[in-house]
Amino acid sequence: MKKVVVVGGGISGLSAGSLLREKGYDVTIFEASNRLGGKILTTELSGIAIDAGPDAFLVREPEMKELCVSLGLADDLVAPQPRTAKIWVDGAMHSLPKNQFLGIPLDFDELDDLGLLTARGIDRARRDLILDNNSPIGDETVGSLIRRRLGDEVMDKLVGPLLGGINAGDPDKISLNTAVPHLAKAAGGQASLVLSIQSYLRSLDRNPHDPVFLTCPDGLGRVVEALKERLEDNIVLNQQVQSLVPENGKWIVRGQDDVQADAVILSTPAYASASILNGHNPDVSKWLSKIDYASIAFTLLSFPTGSVQPFDGSGFLVAKSEGLLMTACTWSSSKWGHLENKEHTYLRVSTGRAGDDRAFSLSDDELVATLLKELAFTVGLTAEPSDCRIVRWPRSFPQYDLDHSHKVKHIQRLLQEEVPGVFVAGAAFNGLGLSACIRDGKSGAQAAINYLENNDTDDTNSGG
Fold this sequence. Notes:
Elements: E1 3-7, H1 11-22, E2 26-30, E3 42-45, E4 48-51, E5 57-58, H2 63-70, E6 86-89, E7 92-95, E8 100-101, E9 104-105, H3 108-114, H4 119-126, H5 142-150, H6 152-167, H7 176-179, H8 181-187, H9 193-204, E10 213-214, H10 221-231, E11 235-236, E12 243-247, E13 250-254, E14 259-261, E15 263-266, H11 270-277, H12 282-289, E16 293-304, E17 315-318, E18 326-330, H13 332-335, E19 344-351, H14 364-379, E20 387-398, H15 404-418, E21 422-424, H16 427-430, H17 434-463
Parallel strand pairs: 1-2, 1-15, 2-11, 6-17, 15-21
Antiparallel strand pairs: 3-4, 5-10, 6-7, 8-9, 12-13, 13-14, 16-19, 16-20, 17-18, 18-19
Helix pairs in contact: 1-10, 1-17, 5-6, 8-9, 11-12, 12-15
């Protein structure tokens, strides 16, 4: 039985390990920390399970829901309440357009009633319907597409805050094709960006009543716990892998305890994988280090329900131009039905984005004090929290710049040619969402399987 070591116990590594075990391989998953799940983390706040990482998954990408089905969790999944998000911009709270795609307005008449854009900004957005072909030559940034089709106001007041909240990035620097592939696909059908997106959405033939997002009411950590139960015998926690050393056609995985493997999958962040590979192949290490990351933090707050005015929406985004520390606030008690009508009202405040690490220079007390001042300013919340949790995620969001696809292809080629038997997987390469990470973990596992099968064939042929 061939031995495969998976380094990293996030959702990508667990997915890789699950597939390898299913295919009959001897698998060990090494996780450097004392828990599994990576950025999936469910914690307790005033007696309630709250996610301090992703709090839902996108249904249109099937892998996460399929995983929940396979783990027997599908019947427990819940959708958010049908409430819209808002945005704080120009010193005021505004509703986001109901008819929009990733912040891109699809009904210009609706914009007239929101007061979010100026009359000049709306007129500029309407020009999308008459401007020439919107197809770029090659790749471009998301910001470039939106600005040239719909103008700066749509970019800065709608698309930028929404996409910045999704990937903690700067839309003027991230790649349209690799960072937001659904938008890239939707944008290329017609000359008008808005008409092209409308046509794309119609082609999906999706039931408008079907949920867009789902989650586990007791937190997405339940998925990790179920995977842990499935893979218990294959997991080693608190095992820091330091390097890989080739030996007689195999790999020695060096850590607290050295292990010999026929193949290795690194499902750690790109910079961690770079450190592990640096001693053996500085070239691939250098390329892995070229993938930049943004840092974010979540501050989870609970308040006695009677001390907080209800919020009309699921939460709000904050435009970068406002200069506030917080980038978004999820009003969890409004967003999720299972958190509604409790003794406490639950909020989740996000801080940090590409180029903004201010939250990481503050102590926990300073961070909470600053955010409470901003909540008082934006929504008039003056109560003191009854409980608080701060979870910091340094270097947690890979940034897909215009050169990202080239970096990934070059890394894969170097691994294949110079580090055979070693594979990489995870959010740094082919998508940030949970389903994308599951997909990439399985892809890494399948690549390892193909490599081992081909080596078996080569060994058989050479022995013949």
